[in-house]
Amino acid sequence: MALKLLTRRVAPIVTATALALVLAACSSSGGIVTKRTQGYEISESALKQVRPGQSQELVTLVLGSPQSTNTFGDESAFYYVQTKIDETAFGLKMIKSRTVLAVYFDKNKKVSDKAVYTLEDGKVIAIESRRTASFGEDRSFVDQILQSF
């Protein structure tokens, strides 16, 4: 009797799990893990075309619009980010590699340098969780209502 009750409870879970695995295997990608690239696809040929002395307009024609820009003083930079990820049929994403192409410009908007950075070049930054208190922000909604009377 106990075995029959246990089988009745476990059978739907096992069936649902098996069905989920079968459906995941039958996805259009042909497998459970899909490899894809997010962001800009940095090709070697495009990278070779960017040389010191070229204008910002020519860099934009060769590489396209940058995903991010930065200006510091008279100089500026364009950033192109490529992230290669593996994504499972269940939505889990795993970053395999990240490459950032940085193109630096001088005050005349001509290429002064370029650099390629990877995940190994990055640094982990600890985020500060403390906040500066400001008027009215630390009071709860109920406190604000009661103080209005």
From TrEMBL:
<keyword id="KW-0732">Signal</keyword>
<dbReference type="Pfam" id="PF04355">
    <property type="entry name" value="BamE"/>
</dbReference>
<protein>
    <submittedName>
        <fullName>Outer membrane protein assembly factor BamE</fullName>
    </submittedName>
</protein>
<keyword id="KW-0998">Cell outer membrane</keyword>
<dbReference type="InterPro" id="IPR007450">
    <property type="entry name" value="BamE_dom"/>
</dbReference>
<dbReference type="InterPro" id="IPR037873">
    <property type="entry name" value="BamE-like"/>
</dbReference>
<feature type="domain" description="Outer membrane protein assembly factor BamE">
    <location>
        <begin position="39"/>
        <end position="113"/>
    </location>
</feature>
<dbReference type="InterPro" id="IPR026592">
    <property type="entry name" value="BamE"/>
</dbReference>
<keyword id="KW-0472">Membrane</keyword>
<feature type="signal peptide">
    <location>
        <begin position="1"/>
        <end position="20"/>
    </location>
</feature>
